[in-house]
Specification:
This protein has helices at residues 9-17, 28-42, 44-61, 70-84, 92-98, 101-104, 106-111, 122-126. It is an all-alpha fold.
Length: 136
Amino acid sequence: MEKHYALSDREFEKQFAQCDLDPSLFSHTAHLRLAWIHIKRYGLGQAEKNITDQLKRYVAFIGQKDKYNATLTIAAVKMVYHFMCKSTSKTFRDFILEYPKLKSDFKELVACHYTMDIFNSEVAKRRYLEPDILPF
């Protein structure tokens, strides 16, 4: 089980925003959960801004600035939003069970939108690139 589930949504959001979250808890699934929480609370546009700002601060704080990827961050939020619009789930745990591809086949989902490798592109890391295959 993902260790971040030991924290309530509020605790998880707060610890991340304050750079108090143990880096070992911030997995890919935790990143998706953060997107889910912010979209639920603040809407898509504000969620994109919040997560972008907070993630930049967080990776700088833990000394992993090179891990930040602007395109991947926004793309992940947009993908979570896409599936949230179809979902009937009330909790993130139920949501990720309803749409497990977000967790298990994330790279495949990204490949439906981009021909380029946004995971390793220096340009994609610095600024958000719109999809060149399928818009979000």
